[in-house]
């Protein structure tokens, strides 16, 4: 890895918030990001599969976890399966069918984005960014807030609050820490 600064930054950056380290850049490269997948192959890098649900999941509000699933690492597959089922139940009790709706929202958005991979022979040349976004069906994502889009998709207010508000809080906290360190 080449980096002009003393620490890795950009998409690989981490930030310390209240003694906890968080990824401030991309945390996941989507398998449908064909450029990243091809670059990974070109560099002969190993692709890690998504981790098991038994490792746990949590939502951090900047000071504490406001929600956590169970986290168990066992060599016994049936224990991991029981923990995975318990975590699924915890998530369903908290968010209901909103997780299914969110999955549909993400899948629809990713499929719209995939239109950009079409051959130049089958897609138009765009005169503006707005034209490009409208062609792919992504313009609303730039014209409205994420909270509005998620509410229209049928997500429950709690999930929207915890996804959007917490993410926004952490982003503002990160920017605040960054700007205070620049002064």
TrEMBL record:
GO terms for biological process: prenylated protein catabolic process; prenylcysteine catabolic process. It holds the Pfam family Prenylcys_lyase. Its cofactor is FAD. InterPro entries: Amino_oxidase, FAD/NAD-bd_sf, Prenylcys_lyase, Prenylcysteine_Oxase1. Keywords: FAD, Flavoprotein, Glycoprotein, Oxidoreductase, Signal. Residues 80-168 form the Prenylcysteine lyase domain. It is an enzyme of class 1 (oxidoreductase). Residues 2-79 form the Amine oxidase domain. Its EC number is 1.8.3.-. One of its GO terms (molecular function) is prenylcysteine oxidase activity. PANTHER family: FARNESYLCYSTEINE LYASE (PTHR15944), PRENYLCYSTEINE LYASE DOMAIN-CONTAINING PROTEIN (PTHR15944:SF0). This is Putative oxidoreductase. It comes from Rosa chinensis (China rose). The lineage of its organism: Eukaryota, Viridiplantae, Streptophyta, Embryophyta, Tracheophyta.
